[in-house]
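#help-structures
NK: newbie question, is this the right format to request a structure? protein is Taurine ABC transporter substrate-binding protein
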Amino acid sequence: MNTRLLLRLLALSFAGAIASAIVGASVAQAADKIVTIGYQTDIEPSKIAQAKGLYEKDSGYQINWRKFNTGADVIAAMASGDVQVGFTGSSPLAAGVTRGLPIETFFVAAEIGSAEALVVRNGSHINSPQDLIGKKIAVPFVSTTHYSLLAALKHWNVPADRVTILNLAPPEIAAAWERGDIDGAYVWEPALGKIQKTGKIFTTSADVRKWGSPTFLAWVTRKDFAQSHPDFLVSFAKVTGQVNDDYRKNGANWTASSPEVEAIARVSGSDPADVPPLLRGTSYPLLSEQPGSTLLGGGTAAALADTSKFLEEQKRLDTLLPDYGPTVTAAYVQQAIKQ
């Protein structure tokens, strides 16, 4: 082979190697900007950002959204590594971190009020707390509504073992209610709106909060994902703060036909007419409020500790953590505030 031909072949080979390396790097970079997020059907403003693709637009990431029926299911998926960012309530979150799962709260999405409620069936003859004794009440176990139900029974001095408490996921609750199998249920949307049509609200999580047992909804992340993708969490916190701020400023004027309400209803599977009143019953902290002492700056960790202690008393947990501070971080909201 002559020298000129050999040099040409070497040049082509070298160019091919460079091209392959560039393509490989591009594929690796693209794969690195993919995240799976577990969400639920709760009524809250981040559904607007989800419906409009605002998270993808701001972060540049491809997001695979996975719907779960309960926070416990979200936590289980995060424990397995299938989900990197998730939306869950304070009760399953407390149980998860107490059991040592590598997750941390980075944004408090909502301080739950009337968006979660105990509904009793019309004709069930439940008019006072004592009337719950002997009745069948459904609730997703290890959920915020489960915690609220047990806290309410304790507040009313009604022994939990005197009430038949059934472990049903929200879709199962709606089906059991339709069949007439249960007398009541403590649940959230869209099941809440469905059963409320033939029932009455007995109490809400806003009442339980006043009695000293508050619940909240949070965005949480796996710690390994947080370490390798802090940029995504900063972007996510910023966008979530923006939709919460928009609700704080304009939500009082939203109606069933408002685009924001229609977006929330579409993602949550709810009736648009149910969305505005449920939004009004809950508080959605702003980005600027997140690092404060009542939230990520200390309050959230304290609430997780209190919730875990209650769950231990109810025999739902065997041990407690000495400190819940390491399970909460304000780092990403602080960076988002600076942008």
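mod (FA): yep, format's fine, and the tokens are attached above. The chain has a mean pLDDT of 92.
NK: thank you!
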